Amino acid sequence: MRNKIRNHLKTIELFLKGSGFYRGVVLTVAIVLPLAVFNLIDLFAYAPAIALGTFLNAPSDVPGSLRRKINGILISIILTMLVTFIILLTKPVFIILLIAIAVLSFAVSLISAYGFRASLISFSGLLAIVLGLAVSKPDFQSIILHVGLIGVGGLWYLVVSLLSNWVFPRKDDDQLLSDTLSLTGEYLKIRAKLLTKPNKREKYAKKALVLQTQISEKHETLRELLLEGRKRSGRSFSNERRLLIFISLIDIFELALANTLDYTKIDTLFGLEKQHLNTFKKLNKELGNQLIKLSELFIKKGNLPDIELINKIAADTETAIQDYVTEVTLPKAREGAITMRNLQDYQKQLLQEVKAIRRVLTKVKNNAKASLKPQESKQFLTSQDYRLNILVQHFSLKSPMLRHALRLASAIVFGFLLGSILDLKNAYWIILTIIVIMRPNYGLTKARSKNRIIGTIIGAIIATTIILITKNTTVYLVLAIVSLTFAFSLIQQSYKVGAAFITLHIVFVYALIDPDAFTVVQYRVIDTVIGAIIAVIANYLLFPSWEYKNLDTVLATVITSNSNYLKATKKLYHDKEENTLAYKVSRKEAFLAMSNLNAAFQRLTQDPKSKQKESALIYEMVTLNHTILSAIASIGRYILNHSTTPASEEFDTIIEGITGTLLHSASQLESTKTVLVSEENKIYQAHKKLQKRYDNLSLKRDSDIEAGQTIIDDNTLLNLQEAHLINNQLLWLKSLSANLTKTTVKYKSVFS
């Protein structure tokens, strides 16, 4: 019980010291301050429009480079002013207003085609439609004044945002690093469970895919923040520290992916003797816990967590290997022992990366500098294309973006018409609910609808209870401000809780204006329920975009990226010094492509059961691609971190065969010309030669043991490990790529 209370208190402390709450406080201050100041100088009539402008232009202020942040807010200001002007201008004539709403909602939603920040600018534009409907301006002069004040409010928010960034310049960096450390720790713990729990592997594998997607998304944002920041402000000590930690996190993530074991082979090798793997499982779990504890240090002050237990478990892995060899005996135990050695090697590298993060967190100034050169860092940044051609490409009913824009516009127009016909009070809340809830994906829209309704009802009940208890307007004012802060802080973390605080804020604001606040509560709930129902039905019936129909391109991209990654790995084996950068860039592209496929599969699982066509087959393709990526990463990681023998001709032959098979699968998905695949016999002979080399090394080792040389020298061990890993991973990759081709043919026959 005491531990639970302590954990809850720690969670609250991390939240209050985190960037989410800080952002909520900043936005609340930016909104409330003009209201207070203009009230003091008897110019309050101008304050609401400025507050609206502040609120409207805050969404695009998300972590990222300073240049993109400023540009995003400025574009948002122009868009919200234009949308508000059009809505207010057309408001007197209902039919023209209806057309304006339809055209604006469609056009503004299409802005999302330009990426995540653009989607938030689009959201601001859609909000401007709602807030334009909420105000009444009788003449052109008052419209111009209102629109101008919204622009002032947007510029005011930009100033406040820049000031807050100046006061705490690394708040977003630290929060993102903290989140990434925590997610990576959870990922390592999931990987530990995969090792010894065959009955729950599918469940844990799906959890691992979700975490991989989340980690990849964090990596992308951190690349922009840290690499752009480094380019802008130079190599400061604090920048270098964060970049070093980020590099270690990427290495840990690759290490984990690179050691996605052939669990079928593990089960065959160890059978009922998996107790020998328990030490490795425990070490992975403790390394994960260490990362989670380190993540907290970015948010709150504290001492580095103890690492002695991890050092002890790491030492115990050697004993576990010896016990296994003693129990099973050589040569029967050789393959299992080498597998355990490779696992031990992987965990030693993990431990070194964790210790590297600990060293950086001690703030020792003689830490190694991040070796990435400015011109190299550009290659790791994903640039967003802002050409008009991007928008033109979406003008097809095959585009999910266009279908969503049509669906959203139709739902907004219908919601507005329904509210007008029923003469509902504050009917624009219906449109607001539709805009906030509706997403391109049906499952997410349904989940947000449910959370929105529950949150609104909870907020309404709490607000009603407080209004019944007290009529004190000061209490209402304080609660309105506090609830606004928590609404902004929690809306991303928990949509349900955020919706509850939004409802609390709205009710208390109305309670300050109108003594009959219960009517507001009633209509708030009714409008929210109507808006949520419209959003879900529209997503299901209007231009539906089921995920299974959009997977061909995503799958083809992953397969092509994996092929390019394998080619880069081949070059790395031939010359590490020359090809390391190209290898890392191709690795990043492959990881991102896999993350996009994982995300697409998660969306598929949220669609209605009737629309999850052949989900088992699609899951098989996802896992095959993921395993191929892991096997490639395993080879690349070994080459990067070990002294290796020269790459053989047989290695090149097999790699060419595998890449050919992968590109053949991609061409099937893209319905392009078939790629020529290497001769099977040639690849078979190459595999035989590689296997013979490993067998010769094994026989030599058997002879050494018979001669009494029981302790293996480092050079022999490294040669055995390299031959074992390269040979087995290539065999595995060949099998996986062949299975992928068969599965792709089956997939195309089902969905063609």
TrEMBL record:
Domain (Integral membrane bound transporter): residue spans on this chain: 416-537
Domain Integral membrane protein YccS N-terminal per the UniProt entry, residue ranges:
73-296
Which keywords appear in this protein's UniProt record, sorted alphabetically? Cell membrane, Membrane, Transmembrane, Transmembrane helix
Keyword match Transmembrane: yes
Query: InterPro entries under this entry?
Result: Memb_transporter_dom, YccS_N
Query: In the UniProt record, which is one GO cellular component term?
Result: plasma membrane
| Chain ranges passing through the membrane | 20-37, 70-88, 94-113, 143-168, 405-422, 428-445, 452-469, 475-491, 498-513, 525-543
Reply yes or no: does the keyword Secreted apply.
no
Subcellular location per UniProt equals: Cell membrane
- Membrane topology label: Multi-pass membrane protein
Q: Into which family does the record put it? A: Belongs to the YccS/YhfK family.
- Output this protein's name: Uncharacterized membrane protein YccC
| Protein's organism | Olleya namhaensis
